[in-house]
């Protein structure tokens, strides 16, 4: 009976040691789980902040693109008007050459004014086109960022 009692005590001690080991493992796993939850929450908050920042940039780029398009339209209208003026000046120039109008100096001056106006419109048009292209490149960058965010979120979902 003493031997059986000693054997049972030995088994109880082994079971207590095993239970303590399992409890330690469980506590470690619970801590690790909590750390992972905190890490995932921080990553989600960072990702949300990044998405908001990208959305703000996208809105800003859209406004710039609309402004550039409006400016380009306005310059096209101005260009058309100046081309009509240039045509009128050419007609007047033709009339002067045939002797029906004032001196050649006035025609030359009108042509010079028309040329200056046309060069100004060309310069302004180039600037607006550059702004429009810059806005388009910025929108492309934002689109690429949004694609990257989708890939990041897909990767984190697959990793779970």
TrEMBL record:
GO terms for biological process: positive regulation of cilium assembly; positive regulation of protein localization to cilium; regulation of cytokinesis. Residues 23-92 form a coiled coil. Keywords: Coiled coil. One of its GO terms (cellular component) is recycling endosome. InterPro entries: ENTR1. It comes from the Eukaryota. Belongs to the ENTR1 family. This is Endosome-associated-trafficking regulator 1. It comes from Nipponia nippon (Crested ibis).
